[in-house]
Prior knowledge:
The complex is a heterodimer. Chain A is mostly beta strands.
Amino acid sequence: EPEVTQTPSHQVTQMGQEVILRCVPISNHLYFYWYRQILGQKVEFLVSFYNNEISEKSEIFDDQFSVERPDGSNFTLKIRSTKLEDSAMYFCASSPGLVAFFGPGTRLTVL
Amino acid sequence: GNSVTQMEGPVTLSEEAFLTINCTYTATGYPSLFWYVQYPGEGLQLLLKATKADDKGSNKGFEATYRKETTSFHLEKGSVQVSDSAVYFCALGDHTGGFKTIFGAGTRLFVKA
């Protein structure tokens, strides 16, 4: 069964550094998403991406965040200058339209 | 805006007990409803879904019925196992700006042997 994959599984970085989180969505899905889960808290929507552009973003998704689909398979989330409060689990998801299928997540730790 | 409210946890049960986790939603229109499960150290897995009123989603002994009149989608299982220990998230599909998923806060379930 096809799955969403994410790399790395765990990323440790220093405050102020840039990180890129990578995702390979399920092929033939049209919608791509990033969500965030701060430890012990709810899963929060960050951004959705459709037809090679952002279709919706939350207030969390400010100028330090960006997304790209650099080729036909990868979908990336870049955090430009990480802050301590960016420490969280980041989930990528893809969807054919109704149900979102989530990847295993990348745990980002900002020191 | 659309939102999901679910009962706070943790919920602690003995093996073979009956489980109910309450979930209600607020939404315009008729959203799709989901339960996702997160096992310790893992990602989010779709457990079941319902796409219209009176639909019953079921999987692995879990069930939930889409109740439009009470805007609810309560999760039930007749006999829980230790392996069901996880965090359960009620969610709805928000189709207003795309197809994003809006999650409840999650309910942690502990099942004791």
